[in-house]
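Comment thread on ticket #2218

A.B. wrote:
> Attaching the input chain for the structure job we discussed in standup.
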Amino acid sequence: MREYLKVEVLTDENRIDKLLKKGWEIIATNNYVIEPPDSRTQYHMGMPAKVKIQQLKDIVKKYEEYGFKDQLIQKVADQNGDNIEEYTIGGGRPVYSETATFIQEYEDVVNDQNVSVTKKFKDEDYNF
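C.D. wrote:
> Ran it. Output below, let me know if you need it in another format.
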């Protein structure tokens, strides 16, 4: 069964066309008689969740184009008392922190990527 975030019942053809172009779907129709022989059709329309999710992802991608992803991650790291320069994607030692969790969740939700956030190796990590 499809999930809809919004549902509207409409009769205005212009509004119906606009919504269809924005990704809405016709769920059902009702024909009813106004006064014989005149009848009218109602359209039950829904905004699919997948369409809204994609629209939101597209907005987030625009933010990323302008560098706001880096600013967001920096703010999260600052709030958690972390130095973002110490983090990397893979190639370091495992780390469990709110900052790392945020980055991993962000990449999963926004970019559909499963990343491993690690701390960069430092010279003092190699005490032989």
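A.B. wrote:
> Thanks. Noting for the ticket: DSSP finds four helices and six strands in the chain.
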